[in-house]
Write a structure and sequence with these properties.
S-adenosyl-L-methionine; 2 domains; single chain; Rossmann fold; Nicotian_synth; nicotianamine synthase activity; disordered C terminus; globular; about 35% helix; alpha/beta; Nicotianamine synthase; eight-stranded mixed beta sheet; about 325 residues; 8 strands; SAM-dependent_MTases_sf
Length: about 325
């Protein structure tokens, strides 16, 4: 790695030491300060390849992703509880400090989605790992997919209870948003009901866990259904797990977006193959064409800062 990359990794490791020394990751002045510092450090536009990190830095990255996940869960629970104390929670949703980021990310995902929904908007969508503050579902349902039904899955019953409370007083969303307390690895038949499945960034905290979830979705989603995933690129991979396109077996990768603004997550969209691609030698089983991992590059936002250029990855099946 170059000097600039080394300096960023060193800074991230220092912040990790500070975060690790905190008594609690619940929202507080110190917690907010350290995580803000971490995010600002990680979103710097440097060509950092986390696969080339030292073993020590890789260990820190793994631990840091889990600390970020814990802090994010506590932050969302705090604000979901606060919002739930209002008579009409959604009227006050902009008090969440990262609401504007969700507006940008959801707009990006919607734009990406409609590029590949060629005939109609989806009628049934699943969001896996929706959490106590399901902002993506709320924003998409409120502003973009206004007739779509959203089924939100989370393994935590208390998270679903907080989330349900946010939309229960809304006459529209309360009829179109549903919450299921389930480990998605135990959900099979129901997955065939959805035209689009969103997979939250923190479902599957490492490469192996993420690959198992994706494999489960490949087995049980409806043929031709779309899978929307969140990943991370460059130093942002210290905040969220990275999805290796070669792990998307069973799917045709359609597009990949890497933001370079304050939106942290990369966005991938893939389509489940309508039918398995079989080899000539049937004893070898199905051959699934992976995405062209070597062709993914960093993208720059357009002049207004909200949209991101697209790389379309097209696989021609013979």
């Amino acid at each position: 790695m170059g000097c600039q990359e080394d300096m960023v990794v060193e800074k991230i490791c220092e912040i990790y030491d500070n975060i690790s020394s905190l008594e609690s990751l619940k929202p507080s002045k110190d917690v907010n300060m350290h995580f803000t510092n971490l995010v600002l450090t990680c979103i710097q536009p440097i060509p950092l390849d986390v696969t080339k990190l030292s073993n020590h830095a890789q260990d820190i990255r793994s631990h840091l992703i889990r600390l970020c996940a814990e802090a994010e869960g506590l932050l969302e629970s705090h604000f979901s509880t606060l919002l739930g104390s209002f008579q009409n929670p959604l009227d006050h949703i902009n008090i969440f400090p990262y609401y504007s980021n969700y507006l940008k990310l959801s707009h990006l995902e919607f734009t990406l989605l409609i590029d590949h929904c060629t005939t109609h908007f989806p009628t049934r969508v699943a969001f896996i790992g929706s959490g106590p503050l399901p902002l993506t579902s709320i924003v998409l349902a409120s502003y973009h997919l206004r007739t779509t039904t959203f089924h939100n899955y989370d393994i935590d019953a208390s998270a679903n209870s907080l989330a349900q409370n946010l939309i229960s007083s809304d006459p529209d969303l309360s009829q179109r948003m549903f919450f299921h307390t389930s480990d998605i690895m135990d959900v099979s038949t129901a997955l065939r009901d959805y035209e689009v499945v969103f997979l939250a960034a923190l479902v599957g905290m490492d490469k192996e866990e993420k690959a198992r979830v994706i494999d489960h979705l490949a087995k049980h989603m409806a043929p031709g259904a779309l899978l929307m995933l969140r990943s991370a690129h460059g130093a942002r991979a210290f905040l969220y797990p990275v999805i290796d396109l070669c792990d998307l077996q069973g799917f045709e990768v359609l597009s990949v977006y890497h933001p370079t603004d304050e939106v942290v997550n990369s966005v991938l969209i893939a389509r489940k193959f309508p039918v398995p691609v079989h080899s000539v030698d049937q004893t070898l089983g199905p051959i699934i064409l992976p995405g062209k991992c070597s062709e993914i590059q960093t993208f720059n936002p357009l002049s207004h800062g909200n949209m991101i250029e697209e790389l379309a990855i097209e696989e021609q099946l013979s």
